[in-house]
Amino acid sequence: MIIYGKNPIIELLSNPSSEIEELYISRNDKSNEASEILKTAKSRGIRTSSLTKESLSELCDTHSHQGIAARIKDYEYHNLADIVSRTKEKGDKLLLIILDHLEDPQNLGAIIRTADVLGAHGVVIPKDRAASVTPAVVKASSGAVSYMPVSRVVNLANVIRDLKKGGVWIVGADSSSSTSVHQEDFKNLDIALVIGNEGKGLGNNIKSECDFLVSIPQSGKVSSLNASVAAGILVYEIIRQRTSN
Prior knowledge:
Strand content: 15-25%
Largest sheet: 6 strands, parallel
Shape: elongated
CATH topology of the largest domain: Alpha/beta knot
Number of domains: 2
Number of strands: 10
Radius of gyration: 20 Å
Mean pLDDT: 90
Low-confidence stretches: none
CATH class of the largest domain: Alpha Beta
């Protein structure tokens, strides 16, 4: 996989466990930041190549590479059971974010970044008809995919049922719900928060599996929020409740 963008590359270089096969940098970039990136790469024994901006654009299949790219192994998805068991071993209350066929790579990347910043334990995506971890997602996450486990599953409904059997409460984000997220008490619960598709919201089969359906109070004239923004608000509220006295 070819990833690109300064923030994702810097995050990869700062993570000792990341495996970068080769680093590519614009030969016209003489900035201090580029020099530091090259210095770090060489100290880790990573092969580096100097390319023209045109060659970088061709390599990355985009002009949004910011003059830097890296070749890494394809993303390895995490086993959901392992994410859950690691969380229990730490003694944490579980917080997963389940994405019901989210299609926009920018939204997926932003949600992964939010999950990492706010302290969720993992992101779950379906294998089919949904965005997966691609170079665009890595860039949109600002490198957070290096730290936030993402699990890809075949059947979301079956996964949700299994989580419920394990004592996890399923919270669905539904703008039509009359129950505000502030009205529910999530402080002592293991939770999987489900965010729906950008256009259709939660599928009926997924909605029927939810223990709670909550909405975000709104007072403006726009009727809905971007999926990644909604996810951020909901995750923050759950974390706020857990950390407040």
